[in-house]
Amino acid sequence: MLKPTMGEVARHLESYRKWERQLLAAPTDRRARERFEDAAYTLCVLMGERCGREAAHAAESCLRHARRSAHAPHRGRL
């Protein structure tokens, strides 16, 4: 299975959150709803989840883990 890059995960999570905020601000805005649903679907496919909320959570966890790994000291094999 191919894994997305962290940049890709971050970009799609940002899009999801952007449209989520827009939809919460204007619940009857059809365009915001369509864009939010598209962003949720894309994030679900990317993260291998069935629910947008779970996909967003998985993306946030993935990004946190990647940040921690990037800042952890490298320990080579002896």
Low-confidence stretches: none
Number of domains: 1
Strand content: under 5%
User: What is the count of DSSP helices, taking H or I runs of 4+ residues?
Assistant: 3
Give average pLDDT, whole number.
Answer: 91
Broad structural category: mainly alpha
Helix-residue proportion: over 70%
Could you state the order of secondary-structure elements as H and E? HHH
Major β-sheet annotation? none
User: Cα distance, first to last residue?
Assistant: 31 Å
Q: Mind telling me the C-alpha Rg?
A: 15 Å
Number of strands: 0
**CA-based shape:** elongated
Give descriptors for this structure:
single chain; 78 residues; mainly alpha; 74% helix; elongated
Structure description:
This protein is mainly alpha-helical and 78 residues long. It has one domain. 74% of the residues lie in helices and 0% in strands. Helix 1 runs antiparallel to helix 2 and helix 2 (30-47) crosses helix 3. The longest helix is centred in the first third of the chain and has 20 residues, at 6-25. The radius of gyration is 15 Å and the shape is elongated. The chain starts with 5 loop residues before the first helix and ends in a 7-residue tail after the last helix. 19% of the residues are buried. The model has no long low-confidence stretch (mean pLDDT 91).
